[in-house]
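Translate structure to sequence.
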C-alpha cells in the first residue's frame, strides 16, 4: 500500500457564506441558525482505506468461484497480462446475438465497477429466473473487470509503465516524446515523479488495426491514442474478436468514478450519485480525420441505452431516494482516445458510468450504496437490450436528464476539483 498522499487537512466548509446569501440582510441570528446547513465535502486527496474493495488476487478467486458455481455458464479466460505481468481476465456468459462488452477500473482509484460486475456475473450465471434465462438467450455478455490491474493495485488513476518500456516494445518510437497522457508530476494526490505512468483511457484508436507511428506523438486529448499499453491492446483484441464473431458489438459500457462533491442542479443539498453519458466525440461526419466512421456512428442508440439506465435508477429511487440523484455527464467532450469514443465510432452503443467519489476522496465510504447504484443501472440497461425495449425508448428523454450541478467541495490540488473536471473523465 503506497503512502503517497499528503495527510488529510480536513476543513469543514463554512456554511456562513451560504447562509448570508440565503437569508435577508435583516434576518436575525435565530432565523439563520434554523436554516439547514449545506452539506460539507472535500476534493482534497487523502489516504483512506480501500480494503473492502476486491483487489487483484481476490478478483481471481472470485471469478474462479463464479465460473464453478455457474456450472459452465460463465467462462473465464486469461486474456493476457498487464505491463507488470498481472493477469487480465475476461468473463463470458450467454449465447445471444446481442453482444455487450463491459470494462471496469481502467482508472485504478475507481473501484465500484469491479464489484458490480462480479455481482452481475454471479447472478446471470446462477439464477434460473425467467429474466436471467432471457439474458442468457438474448445476450452475450463479456466483462473485463479491473482491466488495469497495475493502477488498481497502486490505488491510483494511472499505471506505472514508463516511456522507456514503451520504446523497448516499439523501438521505432525512440526519439519521439512521451505521449501527452504520461504523468510525471502530482495527480489526485499521487506523486508520479518517482513512478511515472500513463492514463491508459486515452490510448485507444478507432482504427482497430492501428499501430503506433512516431509522427503521432505526443498527440493531444482531441486526437486518438496509439495502443501502446498492453491493457488497451487486450480490450481492442477482445472487441475486434467479438466484431469478427458477431458482426458488431451492440453495446460497450465503461465504469468510472468522478468527483465526490457534485450536487444536483436544483438541490445543492443532494450529492450526485451517478452521472451517465452516451456522447464522447464530436460528430464524425464533420470532424476532420473521423469522417470514415460517420456511417457506423449511432448517437441515438447510445442515448436510448442511457435512458434505460436512468429509468432503472429512478424506479429504484422510490425506495431509496439516493438512487434518483442521476445527472448527465458534460456533453461537450471530444475524446476519441477513450475506449468509449473509439468503440462508439465503430458503431457500438456506449454508456459511461461516473459514480460518486474516487478513492482519494471517499475511500470505501458509501461503497455498498454506490456499487448498488452501478448494479441497478447495469441491470436496467442489459434488461432493456435483452427484451428489445431499448428500441422503444426516446433519445429526447436523454436530453431531458438534468445536467450536473456545481461541485461544492473544498477544492483539491491546483485549485481544481480533480484532474478530471475539465473535459476529462473521472
Ligand atoms: Zn475514470
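Result:
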Amino acid at each position: 500500500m503506497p503512502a503517497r498522499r499528503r495527510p488529510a487537512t480536513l476543513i469543514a466548509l463554512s456554511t456562513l457564506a451560504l447562509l448570508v446569501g440565503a437569508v435577508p440582510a435583516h434576518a436575525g441570528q435565530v432565523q439563520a441558525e434554523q436554516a439547514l446547513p449545506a452539506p460539507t465535502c472535500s476534493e482534497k486527496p487523502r489516504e483512506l482505506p480501500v480494503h473492502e474493495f476486491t483487489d487483484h488476487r481476490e478478483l481471481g478467486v472470485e471469478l474462479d468461484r463464479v465460473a464453478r458455481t455457474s456450472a459452465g455458464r460463465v467462462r473465464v479466460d486469461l486474456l493476457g497480462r498487464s505491463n507488470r505481468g498481472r493477469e487480465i481476465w475476461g468473463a463470458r456468459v450467454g449465447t445471444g446475438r446481442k453482444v455487450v462488452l463491459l470494462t471496469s477500473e481502467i482508472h485504478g482509484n475507481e473501484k465500484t465497477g469491479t464489484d458490480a460486475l462480479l455481482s452481475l456475473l454471479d447472478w446471470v450465471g446462477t439464477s434460473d429466473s425467467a429474466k436471467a434465462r432471457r439474458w442468457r438467450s438474448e445476450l452475450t455478455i463479456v466483462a473485463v473487470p479491473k482491466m488495469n490491474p497495475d493502477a488498481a493495485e497502486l490505488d491510483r488513476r494511472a499505471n506505472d509503465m514508463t516511456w522507456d518500456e514503451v520504446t523497448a516494445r516499439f523501438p521505432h518510437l525512440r526519439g519521439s516524446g512521451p505521449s501527452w497522457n504520461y504523468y510525471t508530476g502530482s495527480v489526485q494526490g499521487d506523486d508520479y515523479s518517482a513512478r511515472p505512468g500513463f492514463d491508459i483511457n486515452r490510448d485507444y484508436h478507432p482504427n482497430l488495426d492501428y499501430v503506433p507511428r512516431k509522427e503521432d506523438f505526443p498527440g493531444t486529448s482531441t486526437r486518438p491514442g496509439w495502443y501502446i499499453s498492453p491493457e488497451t491492446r487486450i480490450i481492442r483484441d477482445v472487441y475486434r474478436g467479438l466484431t469478427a464473431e458477431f458482426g458488431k458489438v451492440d453495446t460497450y459500457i465503461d465504469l468510472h468514478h468522478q468527483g465526490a462533491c457534485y450536487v444536483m442542479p436544483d438541490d445543492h443539498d443532494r450529492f450526485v450519485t451517478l452521472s451517465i453519458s452516451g456522447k464522447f466525440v464530436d460528430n464524425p461526419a464533420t470532424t476532420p480525420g473521423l469522417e470514415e466512421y460517420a456511417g457506423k456512428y449511432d448517437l441515438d442508440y447510445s442515448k436510448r441505452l442511457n435512458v434505460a439506465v436512468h429509468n432503472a435508477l429512478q424506479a429504484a429511487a422510490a425506495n431509496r431516494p439516493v438512487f434518483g440523484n442521476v445527472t448527465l455527464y458534460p456533453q461537450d467532450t471530444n475524446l476519441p482516445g477513450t475506449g468509449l469514443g473509439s468503440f462508439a465510432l465503430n458503431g457500438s452503443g456506449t454508456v459511461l458510468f461516473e459514480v460518486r467519489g474516487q478513492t482519494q476522496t471517499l475511500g470505501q465510504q458509501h461503497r455498498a450504496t454506490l456499487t448498488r447504484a452501478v448494479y441497478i443501472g447495469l441491470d436496467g440497461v442489459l434488461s432493456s437490450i435483452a427484451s428489445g425495449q431499448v428500441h422503444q425508448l426516446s433519445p429526447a428523454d436523454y436530453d431531458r436528464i438534468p445536467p450536473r450541478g456545481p461541485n461544492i467541495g473544498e477544492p483539491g490540488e491546483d485549485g481544481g476539483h480533480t484532474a478530471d473536471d475539465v473535459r476529462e473523465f473521472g
